[in-house]
Model the fold of this input.
Amino acid sequence: MVKNVCKLQKAPKVPEREMSSCRTCRASWPCSARSQERLYAPAIVALFSGMRLGEVLALREGRVDLDKGVIEVREALEETKTYGVRFKTAKTKAGRRNVTLPTIAVEALRDHRKHLLETRLLLGQGRPAPDDLLFANLDGRPLRPSAVSSDWGDLAERIGIPDITFHALRHTHASQLIAGNVDIVTIGKRLGHARPSVTLAIYAHMFHTDDSKAAAAINAAFG
Done:
């Protein structure tokens, strides 16, 4: 091969499609099942922080400060055919970020920690160490992202949101911020995007196209 033949062909256009989002995830969850359902806390964290599944599953005890309501995102869990399940550090500086949690996420994590501590005491494991995973198997090993995604699919169908993947919770969080008129820079930082342009490229269709504010600003400037 003396030249790259791919350069002779234009890249195909990918049709735009609406990303699924969940407006009623919490309401769909039966109140009696929330504290017992092991996926409730991870889903609530993803829904109200915008974290990726791998980032949620890599959370360690020492990275979660519920008194301040802040999560430190420093690594993620990935699953590959070659290496299996392993931890990886954030690819960019933007990926290493602190995320502030709303009250509902703090409460869900407090309940999860309570049940986790009770389980550990019954197993004779004692209190978790700062490096212990917040979401793990009974023996402390990391959960497989593919297994969690599969379990979420079964749960989503059971609670009436079959088209919502776990990753859709992240999209829902972004749409909530956009609907709340949060600026694009803040949204991008919260999601861990390297540049605001990345956030715009993904979520531009969610922003209102009404430019009446621009006309009002011009009217005000020229009296």
Summary: The longest strand covers residues 75-80. Residues 213 and 219 are 10 Å apart (CA to CA).
